[in-house]
């Protein structure tokens, strides 16, 4: 079998592993806010606790993404991926059995630690991909993420509170009545375990043994603090920094939305919300996932060939930002119908941003530092998430009961402004032309149209 066929097979196996894992992670999305509400004491601020649980996960990802990325440069991608899958298998059981917000917070913190290896999956793709195919294959990885976040939220919404199901009494007076979110968490754990088995049996190592051995001899054991020191230098490099800065603002906008979206949709229609249940939110997030699959699975390759990653990245910022700002204007009389164009803009824009930014970072970084660059990128994503979810939760509690200009619309308006800053930061920088120059030298310049 040729190297190209081997690489294609490796990518498909990685996609399957990530798909299974992402279904498990996506399961938590529809019920997290409702779980916080159930575990909260009367009068407790829901937004702050939702933000705290998300912030704990993001903080751990921020601290450990550079560590996992550099460790994968040293010992190989596969072992690091297996560590993450093993950890998630255990952590999701703990989360499903949480009976206090403190235990839930601890589970999210440990979960973020073990799931801080997204950079490793992207570095794996870069290892086995020709430069001109990076965006397309990162898009395929995006399909695995998107499919997982399509199926996962739907399952999570449907499996929540099984003791309340009207069509069966099988879960009444069982552990699932005391722990209404254990069933989806149990399934998440089983899916991560399945991904682990698939990785062990079928996923090849993407780095040649000579490369790994060389890194073992030349590198000291990486630490989180050591790798975090790379961030300032990356943020001052002329070509890489505009991509990283613009993405940081975009991720900040996106994570503010992560906290406030379900807080808005679950709010009573009389107060301006949509009155959604867990299953309703599951349907919404599944729709977002489907649009993302189409964008990253079918459209990103031809669009990148036609326009190049830099233009798609800029357009993605504008499209997603418009959708984020439009969320609170959905009508409670026709909630799904009026949310659809907003959801489309968010998902389509993000579907352009994710593979395009990974393609540009790949083009702008050397082979030997690719894991570190991806690790810094994921650390910035997690840092943005840490700030965004913390700020979003506090902002929601501050604005939700106001009736002036600083009402519940405020958080989403800020999301739109941050996305606009992302566009301006990238569009008027050296990074705008960097990709074109590099690909032109390699004879792979996209159309200038």
Could you list some keywords that capture this structure?
Growth Hormone, Chain: A; mainly alpha; 449 residues
Task: Note down, in words, how this protein is organized.
The chain has 449 residues and is mostly helical. It has one domain (3-205, 233-439): MFS general substrate transporter like domains (Growth Hormone, Chain: A, Up-down Bundle), CATH 1.20.1250.20. It contains 19 helices and no strands. α3 runs antiparallel to α4, α7 (134-159) runs antiparallel to α16 and α15 packs antiparallel against α16 (335-364). The radius of gyration is 21 Å and the shape is globular.
Can you summarize this structure?
The model is unreliable at 217-222 (pLDDT under 50).
Q: Quaternary state, please?
A: single chain
CATH class: Mainly Alpha
Number of domains: 1
The largest β sheet comes out as:
none
Work out the helicity level.
over 70%
Strand content: under 5%
Write the CATH fold name: Growth Hormone, Chain: A
Distance between the termini: 38 Å
Q: Can you name the CATH architecture?
A: Up-down Bundle
Which series of helices and strands comes N to C? HHHHHHHHHHHHHHHHHHH
Cα-based radius of gyration, to the nearest Å: 21 Å
Structural class: mainly alpha
- In the CATH hierarchy, what is the superfamily? MFS general substrate transporter like domains
Contiguous helical run count: 19
From the spread of the alpha carbons, the general shape counts as globular
């Amino acid at each position: 079998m040729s190297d190209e066929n081997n690489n294609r097979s490796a990518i498909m196996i990685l996609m399957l592993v990530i798909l299974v894992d992402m279904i498990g992670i996506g399961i938590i999305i529809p019920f997290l806010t409702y779980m916080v509400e159930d575990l909260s004491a009367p009068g407790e601020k829901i937004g702050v606790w939702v933000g705290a649980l998300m912030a704990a996960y993001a903080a751990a990802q921020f601290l450990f993404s550079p560590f996992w990325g550099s460790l994968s440069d040293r010992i190989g991608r596969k072992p690091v991926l297996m560590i993450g899958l093993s950890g998630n298998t255990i952590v999701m059981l703990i989360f499903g059995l949480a009976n206090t917000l403190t235990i839930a917070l601890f589970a999210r913190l440990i979960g973020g630690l073990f799931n801080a290896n997204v950079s490793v999956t992207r570095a794996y793709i870069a290892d086995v991909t020709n430069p001109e195919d990076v965006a397309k294959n990162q898009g395929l990885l995006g399909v695995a993420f998107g499919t997982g976040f399509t199926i996962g939220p739907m399952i999570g919404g449907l499996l929540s509170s099984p003791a309340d199901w009207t069509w069966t009494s099988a879960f009444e007076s069982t552990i699932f009545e005391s722990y209404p979110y254990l069933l989806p968490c149990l399934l998440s754990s089983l899916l991560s375990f399945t991904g682990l088995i698939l990785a062990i049996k079928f996923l090849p190592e993407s780095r040649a043994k000579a490369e790994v051995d060389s890194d073992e001899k030349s590198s000291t054991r990486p630490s989180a603090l050591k790798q975090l020191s790379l961030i300032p230098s990356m943020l001052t490099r002329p070509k890489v920094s505009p991509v990283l800065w613009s993405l940081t603002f975009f991720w900040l906008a996106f994570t503010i939305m992560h906290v406030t979206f379900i807080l808005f949709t679950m709010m009573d229609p009389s107060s301006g919300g949509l009155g959604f249940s867990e299953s309703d939110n599951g349907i919404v997030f599944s729709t977002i996932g489907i649009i993302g699959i189409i964008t990253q699975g079918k459209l990103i390759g031809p669009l990148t060939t036609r326009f190049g990653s830099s233009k798609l990245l800029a357009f993605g910022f504008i499209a997603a930002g418009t959708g984020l700002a439009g969320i609170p204007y959905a009508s409670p009389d026709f909630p799904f119908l009026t949310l659809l164009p907003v959801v489309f803009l968010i998902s389509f824009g993000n579907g352009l941003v994710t593979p395009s930014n990974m393609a540009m970072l790949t083009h702008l970084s050397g082979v030997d530092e690719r894991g570190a660059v991806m690790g810094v990128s994921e650390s910035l994503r997690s840092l943005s998430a840490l700030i965004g979810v913390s700020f979003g939760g506090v902002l929601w509690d501050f604005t939700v009961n106001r009736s002036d200009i600083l009402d519940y619309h405020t958080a989403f308006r800020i999301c739109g402004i941050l996305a606009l800053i992302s566009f301006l930061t990238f569009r008027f920088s050296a990074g705008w032309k960097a990709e074109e120059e590099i690909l032109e030298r390699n004879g792979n310049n996209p159309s200038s149209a």
